[in-house]
Amino acid sequence: MAHVDTMPAAPGDVLAQGRLQHSIATTLLVIAAARAERQAAPVHAARQRLAEAYGATRLRRRLERETAAG
User: Which sequence spans correspond to the domains of the chain?
Assistant: First the structure.
């Protein structure tokens, strides 16, 4: 990420800029933690099983519709 050095226009801007940077940093940490959790072996395996079951269900329903349509 690019670091931008700009002088704040008013003293209150320094505080606002600091809060914004803290908010962005916190958000990035939450995103990183969520990604790491999704990639953990048990969670990843569970997500794969759910995806397979969902795909099989969609296929079965599509085949049922096609059979009913004739």
Answer: 39-70
CA 65 to chain centre: 33
Query: Residue 50 is encoded by which pair of tokens?
Result: 């759910």
In order of 28, 46, 48, 60, the CA distances from 52 in angstroms are 30, 10, 6, 12
Q: What pLDDT does 9 receive?
A: 67
CB 44 within 8 A of CB 38: yes
Residue 45 vs residue 3, higher pLDDT: 45
pLDDT in tens, 14-31: 889 999 999 999 999 999
Q: Provide the percentage of residues in the chain whose pLDDT is more than 90.
A: 66
* Half-sphere exposure (Cβ direction) of 43: Cα atoms closer than 13 Å: 7
